[in-house]
Specification:
By secondary structure, the chain is of the alpha/beta class. It has a single domain, classed as Uracil-DNA glycosylase-like domain (Uracil-DNA Glycosylase, subunit E). It is built from 8 helices and 5 strands, in the order H-E-H-H-H-E-H-E-H-E-E-H-H. Strand 4 and strand 5 form a beta hairpin. The relative contact order is 0.16.
């Protein structure tokens, strides 16, 4: 049996189990998954919003439209191609609900710990060459890992110090490249103004020129012909 077939079988079983997970009683939805896509690239989000559980796919609303526009502009792959070629995961797979101010609640440390084993298993199965964490909470899981206290302002370093750079990461006994992106949500203007706008462009160029992405883009273009 080919390695890809073995990976796909393991990943399909994994996703089936993931979708049954009910570890966190405070979550407001069941897990959201992008499906068992065997890939050398993983996109790691923070947690689904209220629309994703309904539509049953990650990055399904406004932030997703921005994210896929970035990828199409710099990597030459539209949303459908990206979803079919790249594995989507998240720090937490269920919608955490709203906080008292009406914004999406940041997952608590115990919820992050509960969900971390799913990501560990995905790294073991896929052995990715590139991981792209999107947003502060996702970046914290891969760069200079620290205790997460559950608040966005606990981020231990500024986005300016990590976006636009490539790092070498390790998780679940596997090493890979890490290229962080800011969250595409309209809640923060960071990626629209200097220096965030320029750093975002640098990060997207790093992603577009990464061998794992170039291989996917080449196969997509070849298929279209």
């Amino acid at each position: 049996m080919k390695i890809v077939s073995v990976k796909r079988l393991r990943l399909e079983r994994h996703v089936a189990q993931l979708r049954k997970c009910r570890r966190c009683s405070r979550m407001h939805s069941t897990p959201v998954s992008g499906g068992a896509v065997v890939s050398d690239v993983m996109i790691i989000g923070q947690a689904p919003g209220p629309r994703e559980p309904v539509l049953q796919r990650p990055f399904a609303h406004t932030a997703g439209k921005t994210l896929f526009r970035w990828f199409e502009e710099f990597c030459g792959m539209n949303e459908a191609a990206f979803r079919s070629k790249i594995y989507f995961a998240a720090v937490c797979r269920c919608f955490p609900g709203k906080n008292s101010s009406g914004t999406d609640r940041v997952p608590a440390p115990d919820e992050i710990r509960n969900c971390s084993s799913w990501m560990d298993d995905e790294v073991r199965i896929l052995r990715p060459r590139l991981i792209v964490p999107v947003g502060r909470l996702a970046i914290m899981q891969f760069i200079d890992r620290v205790d997460v206290v559950g608040e966005a302002d606990s981020f231990p370093y500024r986005l300016e110090s990590v976006v636009g750079r490539k790092f070498r990461g390790e998780r679940a006994g596997h090493h890979f490249d890490v290229i962080p992106l800011p969250h595409p949500s309209g809640a923060s203007p960071w990626h629209k103004i200097s220096p965030g706008k320029q750093l975002l462009e640098s990060a997207l160029k790093l992603i577009a020129h990464h061998p794992a992405i170039k291989s996917l883009a080449w196969r997509t273009q070849r298929f279209r012909r």
